[in-house]
Amino acid sequence: MKLITQKIVELEMNIAQNIENIKSKLAGTSAQLIAVTKTKPLADLQAAYDGNCKVFGENKVQEMVEKWEVLPKDIEWHLIGHLQSNKVKYMASFVAMIHSVDSLKLLQEIDKQALKNNRVIDCLLQIYIAKEETKFGLSEDETREILNSEEFKTMKNIRIVGLMGMATFTDNQEQIRMEFRSLKSFFESLKTEYSVAENLVFREVSMGMSGDFLIAAEEGSTLVRVGSAIFGNR
Ligand SMILES: *Cc1c(COP(=O)(O)O)cnc(C)c1O
User: 192 C-alpha vs ligand 1 centroid, how far in Å?
Assistant: First the structure.
């Protein structure tokens, strides 16, 4: 029994230690750390919380809701995974930011559910930057189509605050850097093309994961989404 307790304490210290290490690497950049807690047990999330990281990213709505119900209420919950419209209602009362908006239809549903909860939900448009077929996301044309649509202009309960992207799963650091750079440059173009509105402000670029968060931070990320480098492999 004593041994087991010892083991858990060590694990928690590692989580807190990992967070501290990552935060110190990000110091001096514009990137804020989101701890990606998907598949991890509550004890790990509590350890991260105790290690002073209170911004968590989950990729499944149900799992996020279950964790939100039992953990401290000052945690900021970010939905980072692919999202189906019919799941929005379960988290609309508390989700801090949705990173994975990839259609007008989804945005309309988020707006509708946010209105029911009398709040405004911050959203990122997920942009397709990888050279892989498997990733979700919008093209540059599709992004402008959404921003130019009459439907978007009338939405009052969502606020688009920036872009999110995932680089190709590869060891080629130069390729990853170029993909992040292209997302940042698209972000800068949109920022000059569109004027700030109640429901539109280009403030966040969500890019970078465990393997590439330093490259992402160098390329101007404002939100890095780091899981396994904090909690170990899933
Ligand atoms: C799982 C996940 C991450 C974190 O991945 P790690 O490699 O474990 O850091 C980041 N972003 C998204 C969208 C994810 O699904």
Answer: 30
